[in-house]
Amino acid sequence: MARNGARVWPGSPYPLGATWDGRGANFALFSAHAERVELCIFDRGGRREIERITLPEYTDQAWHGYLPDAHPGTLYGYRVYGPYDPGRGHRFNHHKLLLDPYAKALYGQLKWSDAHFGYRVGSARGDLSFDRRDSASGMPKCVLIDPAFSWGDDKRPATPMEDTIIYELHVRGFTMGRADVPVPLRGTFSALSMPQIVDHLRDLGVTSVELLPVHAFVDDRPLVQRSLVNYWGYNSIGFFAPEPRYLSARVVDEFKTMVSRLHYAGIEVILDVVYNHTAEGNHLGPTLCFRGIDNLSYYRLVPGNERHYEDFTGCGNALNLHHPRVVQLVMDSLRYWVEEMHVDGFRFDLATTLARELKTFDTHAGFLDTIRQDPCLARVKLIAEPWDVGPDGYQVGHFPPGWLEWNDRFRDTVRRSWRGDGGLIGEMAARLSGSADLFGHDGRRTWASVNFVTAHDGFTLEDLVSYATKRNEANGEENHDGASENYSWNCGAEGETTDPAVLVLRQQQKRNLLTSLLIAQGTPMLLAGDELGNSQGGNNNAYCQDNPIGWIDWNPEHIGSHGLVEFVKFLTSLRRQHPALRRAKFLTGEPVVYGIPDVVWLTPQGVEKTEEDWRFPDARCLAFLLNGSVDRTAAGPAEEALPHLLFLLNAHFDEMAFVIPDGYAPRWELVLDTAAKDGRGERRELSPGQACNLPPKSIALLLSLVAQAPEPAT
């Protein structure tokens, strides 16, 4: 099977990966500790290894060679020779076919067997033993691609940060239940780019879709043994290759077409990326890629005990972002998705791990500094999940300027408030006004806070108002997985019910939660399907459910019974119309335009709150006025006075009367009422001094009908 050396040219150590130039392909692989590297070529079906080629050159720790007769579609992998000495951090095993870390496409799925492990599974010596079985037959194969694509006049939407509304969705789950999508396309990038899907996103008013991981990933063996899969995809094995199961054909152009069509509709594409760990797990995990190429370089190993891995993720390992070649890998991956695939941003899973220096989180960690100075990444959105499971892993508010961060304090406060927990009005006010206590430093703006009530991890909005406890039995872990405290309230009945009063209350609570999200300062993030009343049957950890539990229910009758689509459209439209709902600057309570403060916090009696009012322990209501005419951003102040907004929130279990405040506008109009079936109710006017009676568990919004006139010049 060995190839004649005359047919293999020296090639170049740069760029890493497989690069086709129109005549042949250069192959380059980093490994600081390997003794030899073989490039393995497979037949078109990926079943038979037809030749092995020893890469002839080794330059600056990169093994490389050029194949003049390689062509797009060539399937390949690597075998890497070196010491197998786990105690010293080396786990080379040339019997294992390895994926190229820079592979731009993969063909096939992993088919588990004991041959994927570098050691003899079941041996008394554990991972200190050595396994000689060949793993190639059960491995996916790397694909040499032609990167050419006609982007035409593709233009990034470049949505300003303060105007951004994120919609988190799962590529497969979003369209599997759509009857109007052809069966072969369901669950793929092609389905996501179909006109009816794009129209739904655009009409909903979202500006950015945040896709759960689309990098190639692995289904964990224990899940496969339980007839389940790693549905969410937080188990990456290839940082450049789109996940094959999301491609209806074997070409990455399908992803590019999706991006182009979403961009044409004005919608950005943000990727959820997992650079904190890989699918190879701990010291007992399989040898699929990095472990067999250069374990000592790619992973953070326990100092003095290099057989074991440092684990801040709960997934068995952590990538070694202290190594320059590993940093290069991640940066090359990010730039590839921006420059070649035209994505508009990234959400970094367990981002605290990426910013750990020795053991602890560091705002000036090498990885964060490297991203900060990169001109390519300076123009995209960067979102941190600001925690991991390691020591001092919770770092909300501590990422550098320029980053957005998931704000779970917003999630928990809003959930608890509408559940009816008392004593939260101060915390609720802080979250609705942009969480300045967390992000108001170093010149950061309100948009640094990514506000959410629901996300892929946890209850859907429907389940949040329908279940007091999780229902994760289908995951096969005896309901021990997933968070036990969800700050949910079932509104009087657990799970599905036909009780009309409970159903009405649930709808009202969903409107309250959605309204709280979309009136808050910061960057709102909606969970796909919440506008449709989608339920996972109480499963708050559907990470392994590639079935109707994890798929979105698009049944028209089901959607019509919830009526939330139009309400969400109304809320996003309201947010677009009123710059006061999407300020870049934090609220201060100081006069800014026409002598009126940017925000005025009010008592139910219509007067400004005192310090004592904030300390009332059983308070469950909040009222505040937003000055509609504050400066927007760098564009300067609005040219005309805009309506003020008066919000009244009643989380009590009883009706509350709110007095319309005096001194801000002579007349007000009610435009939002979450107690109404459509969330809007009948418009009516109110004057200062009049009482607005709010039903239990409801929100009202009033707009001033006459804008405040400018103060006379002195």
Task: List strands and helices in order, with pairings.
Blueprint: E1 17-20, E2 25-30, E3 36-42, E4 49-54, E5 57-59, E6 62-67, E7 75-81, E8 84-85, E9 90-91, E10 106-107, E11 141-143, E12 166-169, H1 171-175, H2 189-192, H3 195-204, E13 208-211, E14 215-217, H4 221-225, E15 236-242, H5 253-264, E16 268-273, H6 290-298, E17 301-302, E18 305-309, H7 324-339, E19 345-348, H8 351-354, H9 366-372, E20 381-384, E21 404-407, H10 408-419, H11 425-432, H12 436-439, E22 449-452, H13 461-464, H14 500-519, E23 523-527, H15 556-562, H16 564-577, E24 591-593, E25 596-597, E26 599-602, H17 611-614, E27 621-626, E28 645-650, E29 656-659, E30 668-673, E31 685-686, E32 691-694, E33 698-704
Parallel strand pairs: 12-13, 12-23, 13-16, 16-19, 19-20, 20-21, 21-22, 22-23
Antiparallel strand pairs: 1-2, 2-6, 3-4, 3-7, 5-6, 7-11, 8-9, 10-11, 14-15, 17-18, 24-25, 26-27, 27-28, 28-33, 29-32, 30-31, 30-33
Helix pairs in contact: 10-11, 14-16
Task: Give a quick set of tags describing it.
20% strand; 33 strands; Immunoglobulin-like; eight-stranded parallel beta barrel; six-stranded antiparallel beta sheet; 714 residues; alpha+beta
